[in-house]
Amino acid sequence: MRVLIDYRPALRDRTGVGEFTHQLVKALVSTHLADPSGRPLEVTLFSSSWKDRFRLPSELAGAAVVDRRVPVRVLNLAWHRLGWPLAETLTGQTFDVTHSLHPLLLPSRRAAHVITIHDLNFLAYPGRTRAEIRRDYPVLARRHAHRADRIIVPSRFTAAEVERVLEVPIDRIAVCSPGAPEWSPRQSHVATDGYVLFFGTLEPRKNVGGLLDAYERLLGRRPVPELRLAGKESEEARPWLDRISRPPLAGHVRHIGYVDPSQRRALYEGARVLVQPSFEEGFGLPVLEAMTLGVPVVAADRGALPEVLGDAGLLVNPERPDELASAIERAIDDDSFASAAAAKGVLRARQFRWDHMARRVYEAYALAIEHRQQCASA
Description:
This protein is an alpha/beta fold. The protein has 2 domains: about 1-180 and about 355-375, Rossmann fold (3-Layer(aba) Sandwich); about 195-350, Glycogen Phosphorylase B (Rossmann fold). It is about 40% helix and about 15% strand. The protein has a 7-stranded parallel beta sheet, with helices on both faces. Strand 12, helix 11 and strand 13 form a beta-alpha-beta unit.
């Protein structure tokens, strides 16, 4: 089986989709997958940029690379709106599957089409998106989803949303949840002098404003560990950044920006608690990463977060700052609760494995090829 994967989401800063892309490729090339006849999976990574050239990381050795000097925006416009140029034209090769790590197809003449839908937030709140996501996703996602031979989603929540909103048959949707990082739990589940950590892009759906409201309530009645906001800022983040520069939050809340993957473990290890108060998540990778190390988690009871966290932490209504504040306070004050939650999180995180995901993705590829062949012969 020959598969072409669009690696561009992981070329620069590896935030949620970029990390998902990189780790998926790493798992696919290291799991040594093959069909019943023994024919191995052959992975080719596609990259395009006018400025940046792709150098294959050593941990992805085994994958081939096709790197084209084509501006990303130009290629996306052509792919999304015209379905051109085809994968065969761009690469000079043929493939059994093309895999796009976002909701719009990587066009091909012969290959089966697989797309990934992480969430449908771009349909619910198109005004909160930018560039081609705002221009193309809301108007094209439904059409591309129905043309895809298989749709990969990270959670049962997203699968249900794709079935309900886009009206895609559930038998063409494959739930392939991300895996936990290869980290050993920290020696102490409770960092008594640790900080309160938020990890994610500073954007409206992450409910950063609600987190600041909850933290300010706590700060008004007691000493509270520092709140660290880790992640890139969006265009909408300016009011929050201005707010933390003034009393009463000044000196108590710090925005540390994008965190390189090599530094993320250290960031989690220093946290007393991770708070993920998002209004919606298609999965919630920071929750899984925190659980892997034994960091207690407070998360919103929305989207896929309950599916990931289970009973290993506290779930709260993200629209109620007082409820969020009380949950953070419990994680700070109650050592026995924090220790128990962390221990449960470590056990739960072991259920999420990248090699398991790689096998499910491979099965999705095989079913996509089968579906393509059935459509061609119909």
